[in-house]
Queue: 4 jobs
Job 1
Amino acid sequence: MSKTRTTKLPKNAYIHIDKIHVKGPCRHKPIGKVYFGHDEDFGYVAAGSRLTKKQLKRGADSAFVKSKKLEDDGYAYELEIHCCPPKVLQKHNVFGHSSLVDYVYAVFDHVVKAFGLYVDAHDRELWRAGHFWLTEVHLTGNFGCLSRDVVPIINAIDENNPAGKQRSLTTCITLGFTGKRRSKFQMATLYYKPDELKTEWKRQGPFQKRLIEATKDSIRGEIKFYSMGLKALKLQYGANWIGADVATLFFDALAKYKIKYAIQPLLTAEALAVLSTAERNVYELWLHGKSVADQFRSRSSVHKYIKAVKEKTGFDMNGDRRPDPLPVINLATVFSPENVLPIPDWLFATEHYFSPKQLDLPRREFKGGISNAPLDPNAGQHGEGISA
C-alpha cells in the first residue's frame, strides 16, 4: 500500500487498533479439543482444534485461540487468535495504540505464556517481522462532542442513510450492510462509548468511573475492515502494516460514508449565485424531496450535477437528509483529525495503558524460510518462553 499522506492528530491522541482476527506461524502442542477430518488415503487425520477461550490477564477480556495446520508429528504449525488487544492487555479499549505489529506480537506472546507453550525463537522472529495474516482489523477513535449532541448526530446520520444500516440503540448506528448481510469489505459504527462501558461494568471502581468520565463528552467512531477490504488495501499481510498510517486509513475509510454531510446548512443566496441555472434547478428539486437519481435516467448526469454543486459550494446532494436553516453542529469539525481525544495524562501512570512496545525486541526483516530447529522440551515451561 502506498502512503499518500500523513494525518496529524493532537499530541497523545491515537486512532487505535481495537479488534483483530490473526493467524501466524507457531509450532506448538495443539490447544483445546482436536477434531479430525477424513482423508481418502490416510483415513482420519488431525485437522485442527476448536476455538478455546482463554483469559490472558486477571480481570481482563479473553482471547479465542485455535490451533491449525496439524501435522503427523503431533504438532500444530499455525496459531489463530480472535481478540481485542487493548482489552486483553490493559482491561479496557477506551484508549489504545496504533501499532498493529506490536499488538500482534504482544498478543501472541501472552497467549503462548498463558498456555505454557514453548515457542521456537524463529517463530517469535517471524511475528516481530509481521509474518502473519489478518482477516479482520478494527480501527477506532474518540471524538470530542457534547453528550447532548450524540443522539441528534446519530439521528441525522440515520436519516441520511435510508438503507444499508443497523440501529438497535438510540446511541449507536452501524453502516455498511448489503441487504441483510454485512459487507465483506468494511463497515462503520458510530456510538456513545459511556453507554457501552456502563453495560460492561456493572460495578464500577474509581478507575472505571474516571474512564467513563473521560469519554462523557465524546462520540466514538469505529471502522471494521474485513477480509476483502484488507485484501483490497494490501493489508492482509502483517508486515504491510509496518509504517502504515493508521489514522489516514481510518479517515479515508470514514469518508466513504454519508457522515460528514449528514448535517448541512441551506445554501445562501451568495452560494446559489455561483451555480448554473441547471445546477440551481437540480438543487431546488432535491431540496423539495426529489433525489438527483430520480431527476435523471443517466448515472453520468446524476454524478455530474452532484459533483458540480459539491465542488462549487461544498454541499452534498448524495444523501437523503435535507439541510437545516442554521445547524448548530458541524460534523466536518466533529469527525476531524484535530478533534480526536488525547489520552488523559493520569492514564499513562497506570497499569491500564499497556504499550505493546514494552515487549521491546529488535525487529528484523523476514527473508523467508521456516525454522526446522528441534523443540527443546525443557525450555520455556511455565509460560516463560524465550526471546528472539
Job 2
Amino acid sequence: MPANFPDYVDVDYEDGDGEDPVDYPHINDKIEKAIEVTRKGLEEYENPVVMWTGGKDSTLTLYFVKEVADRFDLEVPPVVFIDHYQHFDELFDFVERWADEWDLDVIYARNEDVGEYVEANDLEPGDDIPVEELSEHNQHHVREILEYEEDTFPFLLDTYVGNHLLKTVALNDTIEEYDVDGILSGIRWDEQESRADETFFSPRHDPDIYPPHDRVQTILQFAEPDVWEAYWNFVVPDTVEEYPDDGYVPESTDDIPGDLTKEDLPVSPKYFAGFRSLGSEVSTDKSAEEPAWLQDMANTTERAGRAQDKEDLMERLRDLGYM
C-alpha cells in the first residue's frame, strides 16, 4: 500500500450522503451517476479492483466498468471473486464463462488455511472446525477481533465466524497482497438497512481493521427493479449481439429470443430459477418459481431466501471489512 494513502486520491467522501434511490428518479439519472462514479474510481486509484460475485449487482457494476473504460480509454481492473467454498456450481460456471468472454483478470480470494483443513478432513457444511487447528493469523481474528470463545465453530458461511473468516479475512488478505487502494463494488442503498447510509466513495482507512482502501460504490442509487431494467435494456443487448435492443424481458428460459439460451446471456441461471439473492448453496433458497425480475419486488424482501438476514450481524461484519 502506498505510504501516502489516501493523500493522492481526490474524491468526495460525502457524495450521496442523505440520498436514496428516489433522488435519481429516472433510469437515465441512475446510469449517468454510475458512469460518473465509475470514471472517477478508475481515474483516481492506482490499484483498483472490481468486486464480482457473479450476481446481478456486481455484474451491473462490471458492465459500467467495461463501458466506461472503453469510452474513456481506461484500463479494466482485475476482478476479485471471493471463493468461500460454498458456492453454487452454476455460479462458478457463470463466472468462468464470462471472465473468458470478457477477457477478465480474475483474482480468487480464498482463506486457504480454512479451505485446506476442510479438504483434508473431508468436511461438509455445518461440520465443526477446531479453532486451535487454524493458522495463527486466523486464530487472531477469531479470538482477538471477533472475541469468540468456543473451541470450535461450524463450517458455515452464514454465521459470524464463518462469514468473517471465509469472506472478510479472504478479502482483506487479498487487498493487502495486491496493494489494492480502491474497490468498485455493487452494493445498493435499498438492499439492506446496514447499507442505507453508504456514500459513493466510502473510506476504509483504519489499519487496525483492514488494509487502508476506499470502496467505490457505483450503483447505490439503483433499487432492485432498476437493476433489472438496466439488465434487459442495456447489459444484455449490449453484450449479446443477437439479443433484441428494445428491452425485451423473457418470462422463462423458453422465452429467450431466437436461438439463444440462458447460457448465452450474462444473467446467472439461478435468477431464472427463482432466486433473487445469491448466497451460499446450503443457506439460500429460491424466493418464488418465476424468474427474479418477474417477482413482486415491491411487497417482498430481496434477501428473504437467505439464512443470514440479520441487520445487526451485517452491521458488525461491515465494520470488520465485509462489503
Job 3
Amino acid sequence: MAWSVLLVVTLLEGLSGLGRTAAFSPFLNDLCRDLSLSRTQISAAYALAHLATMFVLPSVGRLFDRASFPKFLSIFTLLFGISFVGMSGLRIFDTISWVSLFILWLGTFGIRTALHSYSIAGRSTIALCFSKKRGVAMGIYTLFTTLIGSAVPSIAYHLHQHFTWAGVWASIGLLWLWMLLLCPFAAKPPPQNVPTVSSPLPSEQKTTYRPVLFYFVMTTLFFKAFQNTGITLHWMPMCHEFGADAEKVSFGFMPIAVVSITTTFVFGHFFKKITPATVLLLFLSADLGMLCAAKAIAATVGVYGFILFTGLYYGLNNVVATLVLPVLFGVKKIGALHGWAYAFVSFGSSVGSFYFGWMSDRASYQTALSVCMVAVCVLILCLFGMRKSLQRYEII
C-alpha cells in the first residue's frame, strides 16, 4: 500500500515540474512585452505569491496529518489545474496592468501551494511508512521526480520556440484537471513505528538547543529556495547577461539530475554513518560551489562546475528534507513539520525571485550572486559555531 501511494505522489510531483520556476523563465521577456510590465513588477507579483503561500503551508501540513489521502491530493490537483487555466487568460487584461499583476499573483499562489502540497505528501509518506527502507524509498522517489523535473527547462525552452505562454499554460491546466482521475486510487497507509536516532534529552536541555537547531535548519532551507527560485526564474536573462548559451544551459539541467539522484542514493544508503551536521555542512559547501560556477557559466568549465555543484546541492537538499528532519525532530506530526519547512521555503522563494529581478534592474546578476556567496559563508560559520554546543547532546 505504501509503495502505491508513493507511486501516485511521485507521478504528480514529477509532472508538476511544468509549473515550477524554471518553466516560467523562457516566457519572462514575453510576459513583459505582452503585458507591458517590467521584470521587477513580475518578480514582485511572483514573490508576493510565494509569501502568501508561506502563511498557508503549516495548515496544509496539518491537513495532511488529518485528511484522507485521496481528498488531500484532489484538493491541490484541482487547485493546480484551475490556476493555470486562469493565468492563460491574462491577455484579456493586458491594458490594465494592476489586474494582470493580481491574476498573476493569484495563479502563482495556487500553483505554488499545490506544488508544496505534493512535496509534503511525498516526504511525509516516506518518513511515516518506510522505517526500514527509508533511504531506498527516498532514492526511488527522488529518481523519478528529478528525472522528470530535469527535462522541464529544456521542454520549456523548446515550447517557447513554438507556442505562446497563454497556449502552454492553458494546455497544462487542462492536462492537470485530467490528473484528478488518479487521486481516488491512493489511500494513505497507516504509519509504521519509526524511531529516530536522536536520543531523548532532559526537558531543560531540550529548550537550550531545539529552537536554535530548528531555526538554523529552517533558515538553511529558506536560503536554498531564495537562490533556487531566483536563479531558475531568471536563468535565461542571466545567460544573456553572462554571454552564455541558453540552450546549452537548459540541457545542463539533465546531467544535474543524474548527479542529484546519485548523491541522494549514496547519502541515503550511508546516512546512518553520517551525522546530520555533516550533511548540512556539505549542503552549504555545494551551495557555495554552485554560486561560484554560476558566475563563470559563460565558460565551459563554469558549465561543468555548475552541473556538478548544483547536482550535489539538489541531492543533499533531498537528504535534508527527507532524512535529516525526521531524525532531528521526530515523525509524530511530520505533516505539520514539513508544512513549516515549506513555509520557510516559500518565504525564501518569494524574497529570492524579487531580489534577483530587482538586482538585474538596479545592478547586475553578477552582483546578486556575489551577495549570495557572502550569505552562504555566514551560514557555514554559524554551523561551525553550533557544533561544540550541539555535540554535548549527541545530535552531531
Job 4
Amino acid sequence: MPLRDAIQARRSVRTFSRRRFRLDDPADLQLLSDLLWAAWGFITDKRRAAPSSHNRQETDVYVLLPEGAYRYDAAANRLLQLSAEDLRAASGAQDYVGTAAAELAFVARTEAVTGKTPRGVVETIYVDTGFISQNIYLFCASEGLATVVRAMVPKDSLAARLCLSPTQEITLVQTVGWKAE
C-alpha cells in the first residue's frame, strides 16, 4: 500500500475479533514478525525502523499473546519468552483488552536516557514511544489489521507481572488484532 493510502487508512479501532496470531502458522508468524520489525526492528546494524532521541534506543517492546509474555529481541528479530501466562487482560480495563490478538507494551529503560532533567527523561521516552506506535498504526493500516494505542494502563501491576526493574517504565500499550465484523 502506498504511504499516502496507509496514512488515510490509519485509525484507532476498539472492536476486535477473537482471531489470534497462530505461532504454528508460518503466515501468521511472518505477519507478527513483520509487524514487530516495522515497529522497532533494525534497518541496519545501528539504525531502527523508528527514530529515538540521540539514537539511545531505550525502548523495549513486550508482546503479550495468549501463549505468554515475550520481549522482542530486535537484533535477532525474535521473541524471547518471559512467561507462559496470558497477560493481555492485565494490560488495561477497556472491554476489548485481552480479546485482541496481541497487546504490545512499550517499556523504556530510563537509565539509558542521560543528560536530561527528570521531565526531559519523561518527554523523551514518550516521544520515542510515539514514533514506534505510529509505525504500528501505518503497518496495521497497510496489512488490514486493527490497532489502538492506550495510556490507561495499570502500569505498576503490569510491571510487576513482567518482572520489570525500577528503572524500566511502561509508557503505553498498543492493542493489535483483526477488526470485529
